UniProtKB/TrEMBL annotation:
<dbReference type="InterPro" id="IPR036188">
    <property type="entry name" value="FAD/NAD-bd_sf"/>
</dbReference>
<protein>
    <submittedName>
        <fullName>Flavin monoamine oxidase family protein</fullName>
    </submittedName>
</protein>
<dbReference type="Pfam" id="PF01593">
    <property type="entry name" value="Amino_oxidase"/>
</dbReference>
<keyword id="KW-0560">Oxidoreductase</keyword>
<dbReference type="InterPro" id="IPR001613">
    <property type="entry name" value="Flavin_amine_oxidase"/>
</dbReference>
<dbReference type="InterPro" id="IPR050703">
    <property type="entry name" value="Flavin_MAO"/>
</dbReference>
<dbReference type="InterPro" id="IPR002937">
    <property type="entry name" value="Amino_oxidase"/>
</dbReference>
<comment type="similarity">
    <text>Belongs to the flavin monoamine oxidase family.</text>
</comment>
<feature type="domain" description="Amine oxidase">
    <location>
        <begin position="16"/>
        <end position="448"/>
    </location>
</feature>
Amino acid sequence: MTEITRDVIIVGAGAAGLTAANELKKAGLSVVVLEARDRVGGRLWTDVVDGAMLEIGGQWVSPDQEALKETIAELGLETFSRYREGDSVYIDAQGELTRFTGEIFPVAPATEKEMVRLIDKLDALVAEIDPDAPWAHPDAEELDRVSFEAWLEHETTDQEARDNIALFIAGAMLTKPAYAFSALQALLMAASAGSFTHLVDADYILDERVVGGLQQVPLLLAERLGADVFLEQPVNEVKRTDSGVTVVTDAGMTVHGRYVILAHAPILYPWIEFDPPLPRLKQQLHQHISMGFVIKVHAVYDRPFWRDKGLSGTAFSPYEISHEAYDNTNHGDRRGTLVGFVSDRNADDLFRVSAEERKHRILESLSHYFGEEAMHPEVYYESDWGAEEWTRGAYAASFDLGGLHRYGADLRTPVGPIHFACSDMAGAGYQHVDGAIRMGRLVADAILEEDRA
């Protein structure tokens, strides 16, 4: 039985929690970080599987992610550009493959015109959205009462245009069917990246990677905290006291503090016993958010064979099991790696079959893009964050229909000494590491300001 006292208790050793801990420690407050897993990083995880280094969690850095880029530079890490030379490929509803360059998929002229029109309209709406307060938009309630799928159906009768525009939000980002989240939630997703156009532009949103893996960011942040980070300490109780808060873990550790930061996915709050209970509004709020579901597929080959064919490794199709794929070859590696993504209903279906059948179907989908060689990787691995006990989905939590306008403003609101911070509640950088770092800084500033008052 261990009992300690700190100024601030941080629950969760992901980018948000570790950023907050470092900021608070630099300001002179004592901290402790309690992490349920046996590692730091949260949804950032770099591991070696069958001799191949794989980024099992988040990995990309885009030009607008200033907080992440500042942290990478400050930690002395190096980045490299994603391979993108050559043609991308697109497969239409009839299964026909077309090679192309640029951002717009090679569709019929009328469909292309509709896609461009929809992108322009979404960009105009996004320009009116404050990513930190999307509920403040004059039409927020109306936009939050209609699904993104229904919004698209209202805008155009062109099915392929609808499928492709939905892909950038539903499949690639929120990893939920387009009927399961609102148009307002879709606008927040785009606003968090600066524009809908940025989401369409893979060369922008998936620009760089960190040499050696992005998990080095939380690893190095944790290193600076030393013995103040405790692993395998799932928190099961948060009790408010006259002097602040007491936190108890499953492993028998008790920590007393003046403040606590819950720096993990909000869907995990119900696994904590709060004494007294969280306010009714908070409890209602947490029932209206859920994680998406995506399988991240890693396929490592003896060489990047697609490059020999003049292909960049970038592939898209809302009609394929793997709706997108990219060249994910590691810096300086002679082998070639493809990363593919299977989301929402396709992911559901694949977990109803055997592991062998799932692997076959996914590789078959990749072979539709890149040829028969894609069926024979040297290393194959599926990142299944839905099976991770302390995450339970990916990439992040989002609201159901009507939830963002109804509860979004209360997501970050502290409850006495209890503060909340993670990428799931970020504005800029929402559901990305950049957003986690921004939220870590924001909550640290809030505590410091409160502490000085």
